Amino acid sequence: MILNPVGSTATVHEGPSANATTDPAAMQDRFLKLLVAQLNNQDPMNPLDNAQMTTQMAQINTVTGLQTLNLTMQTMAEQFSTMQQIQGISMIGRSVLTEGDRLAVSDKGEASGAFDLSGSAADVKVEIVTPGGVVVDTLALGALEKGRRDFDWDASKYSGNKADLRFRVTATNKEGPVPVTALMHSQVVATGSAGGALTLTLATGDTVNYANVRGVL
């Protein structure tokens, strides 16, 4: 918006403002001072048009309204970021479920994993495999309904590097294969932020977005 005083030029002196360029109240105050100055210095033979003044007032109301909305959204974003950080700190030490096929092995040699079945299956089996794809053991789980399932496996007798073990799940019914999503258990060791989103650093060394966590144990 531009105000063009008619006749002599008026100078408006304003006091210092800590946030004069973004504070809606300060913007509106400047506008009103300029408008008063314009009215005081207008040419009596060519007064300011009422429609023009109304348009200018509508413009400043729109601008200050948008500025107020921007400040409100910025405040909400900062509050949300703070809440995310607090939530992230509370996640440290907790175990979460994320997509992946790595087995979680405890100090006692107990391995665990999980998976999501997209539909009912007549036959479900879990194969424990090495990184090279060699099958170490097979768990026959039989018929299962749609949903999330957990499984455990005794890894104490496995002599290789237990941290490298993976698993794969196959499920079938009379129509054919049933889609399966492998889920792994992992402990949260640290939190962070990327692109304004909360991230979790897992004991496996992976970093995942909190939005991708499928469950908290």
Share of helix among residues? 25-40%
DSSP strand count: 12
Radius of gyration: 33 Å
Class by alpha and beta content: alpha+beta
| pLDDT < 50 runs, ≥5 residues | 1-18
Q: Which CATH-level-2 architecture of the largest domain?
A: Sandwich
Order of helices and strands: HHEEEEEEEEEEEE
Helix count equals 2
Largest pleated sheet:
8 strands, antiparallel
Task: Tell me, rounded to a whole number, the average pLDDT.
Answer: 80
Task: Based on Cα principal axes, name the global outline.
Answer: elongated
CATH class annotation of the largest domain: Mainly Beta
Number of domains: 2
In whole angstroms, how far apart are the ends?
Answer: 57 Å
The CATH topology of the largest domain is what? Immunoglobulin-like
Strand percentage: 35-45%
Pfam family, one: FlgD
Keywords: Bacterial flagellum biogenesis, Cell projection, Cilium, Flagellum
Organism: Melaminivora suipulveris
GO biological process, one term: bacterial-type flagellum organization
